[in-house]
Amino acid sequence: MSMIALLQTATDMAATAKAASGGNALLGAGLGAGLATIGAGIGIGQAAKGAAEGMARQPEAAGQIQNAAIILAALVEGVALFAVVVTLLVTLKF
User: Which pTM was predicted?
Assistant: First the structure.
């Protein structure tokens, strides 16, 4: 084979490998976004469950429990949003 044919074959192989790695990055980004969303849903569900049980056991502390639950839900959503932004950055890079 001539040198030009070898270079062309190497270039084609590199392009194929780059396309495959970009596809894997997109798959990883999609899985990351999905897991972040599922994790946030589970976390907020558990926080709401605990807050509801706490308010049922101590109705006089319902205001404080509700405020704490809202702050906790906001923090969980912030972490989930950060994870989704990271996955978007990975997606846009490839």
Answer: 0.65
